[in-house]
Amino acid sequence: MTRAWFRFYAELNRFLAPSQRQCGFEWLCSQDASVKHMVEALGVPHTEVALILVNGQPVDFSYRLREQDRVSVYPYFSCLKADAQPPVSLQPPGPPCFIADAHLGRLARDLRMLGFDVLYRNDFSDADIVSIAVQEQRIVLTRDRDLLMRKPVARGCYLHAIASDSQLLEVMARYRLAERIMPLSRCLKCNGLLEPVSRQAVAGDLPEHSGACQQHFRRCSGCGKVYWEGAHVTRMRKRIAALLAAMRPAIPAP
Length: 254
Description:
It contains eight helices and twelve strands. The mean pLDDT is 89. It is an alpha/beta fold. Helix content is 27%, strand content 19%.
């Protein structure tokens, strides 16, 4: 057996037993155990780890623990200094795409409202989510840490917040989404992209009052649902503005 010292930082402490939070502690590890195995054995999903230092030096998940190693484990940061060590796992380039578990339907809808690609169905099993996430390189959004500990899952986000707006702000901050939003460009129902169409093209799909007073329409390329600039859109635009305003205090001054 091997004895190593561990210290977890910031929100990673929420996954630990109370006696292990906010302090360094010694832990008995199996011989030749990887640091990834021990981090998860202590209750922290690997997807929540951005940086691991062993004896002050950065390592990846495959590092094999040695006697009296000192392990420091850090979460994702909202910002990093230019000379900071690289994270354990980098997100793929380009806009992030997500898959949300069955309990996060409101979050999926809210992210779609902001223009992000989010797969969601309330009948997805955990196995479905893992398979799709791997095949399509999607980030798993969940409050189930056991799901994030599944070996095939490369990228994921554990939602600490419970309230829907707080969950949305959590995801926006972690993946720096504020600068990438394309509001009201996706279907809230099926995730398809919205395409401009003429009033004549959708006349048969509209309530009579909408066809009479609206000029601009869009149709989902996936399910065919028609959207227009009604009072509901005005409310969504106000909510988006409020969300972006709530993000501003978290953005460091240049």
